[in-house]
Amino acid sequence: MSKLLYGVEDKPPVLTSIVLAAQHLLAALGGIIAVPLVVGGALKLPADQVVALINAALLGSGIVTFIQCRGVGPIGIRLPCVMGTSFAFVGAAISVGLSGGVPAILGSSLVGSLVMIVGSFFMPQIRKLFPHAVTGTVVTMIGLSLVPVALNWAADSFGPNPNDPGNLAIAAFVLVTVIALVQFGKGIVSASAVVLGILIGYIVCLALGMISFEQVEKASVFALPQPFHFGMTFPIAGIVAMSIAFMVTIVETTGSFMALGAATETKITGKRLSAGILCDGVGSALASVVSAPPVSTFAQNVGVVSLTGIASRFVVAITGVMLILAGLFPKVGALIVTIPKPVLGGAGLMMFSMIISAGIGMLSRVEQTKRNSLIIAVAVGCGLAVTVKPELLSKMPHFIQEVFHSGITMGALVAVVLNLVLPGREIADEEEHEEEAAPQLARETA
Question: How many structural domains does the chain have?
Answer without folding.
Answer: 1
